DNA sequence: CCAAATAATTTGATCGATCAAATTCTGAGT
DNA sequence: ACTCAGAATTTGATCGATCAAATTATTTGG
C-alpha cells in the first residue's frame, strides 16, 4: 500500500506536479478553478507530502532537539515532562516537531547534538539545566547552531550575550507576589526556606521575598536573617531544617519556599510541630503540591514554550536561522502565576472535610474495561 | 557552511560514491585498503549521512511515535517521563529515535497518528493508557500500522490477539512478592488498598495480594474482605478511606497499595492515627515514594522499553514491519522489582534520625554558578 | 486588433543517500 | 597464457518534494 505522490495527484487533476505543490504551499498563486480541482484530487487520493523528501529538498528539518534528562529529580522531576509537552504543542502549532535524545554525560550530549545537527535532523536545540561556563553553549555558539536555553546563565559576561538566547521564569517576581499575598492576608513574619547560597536561581527568588518584606513590612536585615533558613533540595532535609527553625522560637506566621520539595518538607515539619494552620507556599506547582493541597507558584510552562519559539524564529517568525548580533530580542522573563489552595485540602491537618473527587480516569499503564 | 556529501568523500578518497556508502553500511564487502582510505576521508571531512536523504531512499524513518499525555496525573504522572526516557535510550541503541506528538482527544490522536504515518515520518507507535475497545488500536490494525501497547487490553477477545502486540507489568506478581515479603517479615494481617472494581489492572494486582494471603496465611474470604478497602486514586481520597479502615477496629499490621498515591494517603492516615510503624508498600516507585521514604514496587521501565522494541522488531530484529498472524511472540509480561525503604526515612513518624544526603545537584531550571 | 504586462502553469533540475545492475579486478585452476 | 568464478567497485537510476527558470495563458491599454 504505497502512499500517493504529487505525480499521482497531478495525473488525477490533469496539472503539473509543481501545481500540486503550489496548491499546498502557495495556494494564492493558483487560479480558483485549478485550486478546486487539485484539492479534490488530493482528497480523493488521500495524498500527504512525504516529509523526508520535503526536508531534503528544503534543507531544513523543522525539528527542535530536546535532551530528556535521565535524573530522577525528586518531586520536581515531572516539570520537564510538562515543559516537553508544552514545547511539543507549540511545535505542532508551527508545523514543527520535537525530537528527544538522551545522553550519558555532558560530552555525550555535545556529541549527540553534533550528530543530530550534522545529520540534518534537528534545526535547533532547547537546553535546560544550564550553568555558567556551560560547554554545550560554547559549542553551539562556536558552531553557529541555533538554540534557546530555559534558564539564565547567571554569569556577568553572558547574561546579555545576544548570541545566547534564553527564556526564564521571573522567580524573584513570583516569590515577591506570593509574599505580598501572604502579607495582605495578615502575615507579619513571613519566613523563607531556600537553597544554600550561592545559587543564581535560588538567590534571585530570595530577593523577591526580601523586597516584599522590606517594602511591605519594613523588615530589617536582622529580621530577614532570623526568618530565613537554607536547606538542600530534599523533603527530609527541608523537614529537618524547618523543624529546627520552628524549635528555635523565631516563629514565622507563614512560609515561602524556593521549591515544592522544600514546601513539602516544611509542611511535614509544621504538622509535626502542631502548626496545622501555617500557610506555606512552594514553587513549581508539582503534582505533589496539587495532591496534598499545597499552594505553589506555577511556572506557566506553556508561556515559556511560546517564548522559546518566538526567540528561535526571531522577528520574521517563519524560519529558524542563526541570530546575528543585532537581530532583535534575545531574552525573555516570564512572570509566574500564584496558585492558591485552601487549607481544607490538607488532611495532614486532621480535617475531615474532603469532597469525593472524580475518579482518576487515567494512569498511563492502567486500563478500564468497558 | 554546507555539510560534506558522499560525493565529497568519494572525490577525496578517489572511489565512487557507492563505495563510500558501502564503507558506512556494509564494510565487510570492501577491501581493507579501500576501507582505510575512505574512512580517513570521512574523518578528515567530518562527513555524516543526511538522515532525510537516507529515510527517503530507504523508505523507512526508523522512528517511533509516542503521544505525550497532557493529563497531569497526580503523583504518578512522572512515570511517563521515565518511560519515554527509557524508550529514547533503547531507540538510540538501535539507531532509531522517538518522536513526540500531542493530541487533544482520541479522535485527534488518531488523526495525528495517520498524519505521521502517511507523511512517512513514523514507522510504528507505542501506545499507553489503553482500554478494551480502544479506537486507536482498531484503526492501527485496520491500516496495517505497526504498534505496541504498554498495558494489556483486558478484554476476552483481544488479550491473545497476535495483531495486538503488548507489554505489561505483572502487577499480580509484584503485589504478591510485596505481600510475601511483609508476611516473611512477621505480618499476620496484611491489608489491601486498591481501586474500585472492576479494573483490569487493579483487579490483577489485588489477585496477587489474595494469593499470597491464602497461600502463606490461609486467609479466608471473610478475612480478605475485612482487610481490603477501595478508593479512587487520589491522596486525599485514600487518606479518608484508610482512616475509616483504621477506625473500624479491623487493624491491619501492614498495607499493600495499588499505587503510590494510595500509599501516600495511607501513610498520612496511619500517621494521623498514631500508627507510625505500620509498614506500607506502594506501586510505581514514584519520585514521591522516594522523597518520603515509601517502599514501592518499581515498574522497571527500562525492561519494558527493551521488550517493546523486541516485539516491534520481531524475530529478525532488524526492521519494523507489520506482523503476520504467526510471526512469533506478541505479548510480554515483565516482573516488577520491590524497592524497600527503611522507616527511618519517614520524618512523618516523628523520628529525628535522618542523615544529611548529598545536595540535589540539578533541577531542570536551576543553574549553578561556577 | 495588437502589443505589452502580468498571471498561471509547466519543465528542467536539484536535494543526498542507497538500490540494483553492470563492469572491472583478482585469484585459482587447467 | 588463458579461462572462469567470485570479489570489489562503479554506473545508472531512484526516492518525492520543491527551487528556479521557461513557457503559456490571460488581461489591459492604446
Description:
Two copies of one chain form a homodimer. Chain A contains 14 helices and twelve strands. In chain A, helix 8 (171-184) runs parallel beside helix 9 (200-217) and helix 11 (235-247) crosses helix 12 (260-272). The first copy, chain A, is 43% helix and 14% strand. Mean pLDDT of chain A is 85; it is low at 344-370. In chain A, helix 12 links the parallel strand 8 (254-257) and strand 9. The longest helix of chain A is centred in the middle third of the chain and has 18 residues, at 200-217. Chain A folds into two domains: 63-168 and 301-335, Response regulator (Rossmann fold); 171-300 and 338-349, Rossmann fold, CATH 3.40.50. Chain A has 370 residues and is of the alpha/beta class. The first copy, chain A, has a six-stranded parallel β-sheet with strand order 2-1-3-4-5-11, sandwiched between helices. In chain A, strands 7-6-8-9-10-12 form a six-stranded mixed β-sheet, sandwiched between helices. Chain A is elongated and about 85 Å long. Chains A and B meet through helix 4, helix 5, strand 2, helix 9 and helix 11 of A and helix 4, helix 5, strand 2, helix 9 and helix 11 of B. The structure holds a DNA duplex (30 and 30 nucleotides).
Describe the secondary-structure layout.
The structure is a homodimer of 370-residue chains.
Chain A: H1 6-13, H2 17-25, H3 32-45, H4 51-58, E1 63-67, H5 78-93, E2 97-101, H6 106-118, E3 124-127, H7 135-142, E4 147-150, E5 165-169, H8 171-184, E6 190-194, H9 200-217, H10 221-226, E7 228-230, H11 235-247, E8 254-257, H12 260-272, E9 280-283, H13 287-292, E10 295-298, H14 301-313, E11 331-334, E12 337-339
The first copy, chain A, binds a DNA duplex (30 and 30 nucleotides) through residues 3, 5-7, 15-22, 25, 29-31, 34, 49-59, 120.
Amino acid at each position: 500500500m504505497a502512499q500517493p505522490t504529487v505525480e499521482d495527484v497531478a495525473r488525477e487533476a490533469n496539472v503539473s506536479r509543481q501545481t500540486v505543490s503550489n496548491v499546498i504551499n502557495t495556494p494564492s498563486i493558483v487560479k480558483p478553478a485549478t485550486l478546486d480541482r487539485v484539492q479534490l484530487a488530493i482528497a480523493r487520493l488521500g495524498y500527504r507530502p512525504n516529509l523526508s523528501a520535503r526536508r531534503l529538498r528544503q534543507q531544513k528539518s523543522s525539528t527542535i532537539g530536546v535532551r530528556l534528562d535521565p535524573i530522577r529529580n525528586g518531586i520536581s522531576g515531572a516539570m520537564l515532562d510538562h515543559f516537553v509537552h508544552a514545547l511539543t504543542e507549540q511545535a505542532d502549532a508551527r508545523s514543527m516537531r520535537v525530537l528527544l535524545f538522551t545522553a550519558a554525560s555532558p560530552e555525550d550530549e555535545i556529541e549527540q547534538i553534533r550528530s543530530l545537527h550534522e545529520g540534518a535532523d534537528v534545526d535547533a536545540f532547547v537546553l535546560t539545566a544550564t550553568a555558567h561556563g556551560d560547554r554545550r553553549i560554547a559549542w553551539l555558539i562556536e558552531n553557529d547552531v541555533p538554540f534557546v536555553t530555559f534558564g539564565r546563565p547567571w554569569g556577568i559576561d553572558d547574561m546579555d550575550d545576544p548570541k545566547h538566547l534564553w527564556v526564564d521564569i521571573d522567580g524573584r517576581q513570583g516569590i515577591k507576589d506570593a509574599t505580598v499575598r501572604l502579607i495582605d492576608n495578615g502575615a507579619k513574619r513571613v519566613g523563607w526556606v531556600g537553597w544554600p547560597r550561592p545559587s543564581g536561581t535560588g538567590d534571585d527568588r530570595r530577593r523577591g521575598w526580601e523586597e516584599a518584606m522590606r517594602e511591605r513590612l519594613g523588615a530589617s536585615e536582622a529580621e530577614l536573617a532570623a526568618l530565613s533558613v537554607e536547606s538542600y533540595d530534599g523533603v527530609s532535609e527541608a523537614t529537618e531544617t524547618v523543624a529546627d527553625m520552628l524549635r528555635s522560637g523565631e516563629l514565622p506566621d507563614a512560609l515561602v519556599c524556593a521549591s515544592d520539595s522544600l514546601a513539602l518538607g516544611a509542611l511535614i515539619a509544621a504538622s509535626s510541630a502542631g502548626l496545622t494552620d501555617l500557610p506555606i507556599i512552594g514553587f513549581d506547582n508539582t503534582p505533589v503540591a496539587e495532591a496534598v493541597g499545597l499552594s505553589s507558584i506555577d511556572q506557566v510552562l506553556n508561556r515559556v514554550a511560546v517564548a522559546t519559539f518566538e526567540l528561535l524564529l526571531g522577528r520574521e517568525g517563519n524560519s529558524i536561522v542563526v541570530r546575528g548580533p543585532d537581530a532583535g530580542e534575545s531574552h525573555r522573563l516570564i512572570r509566574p502565576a500564584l496558585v492558591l489552595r485552601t487549607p481544607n485540602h490538607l488532611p495532614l491537618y486532621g480535617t475531615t472535610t474532603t469532597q469525593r473527587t472524580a475518579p482518576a480516569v487515567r494512569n498511563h499503564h492502567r486500563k478500564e474495561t468497558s
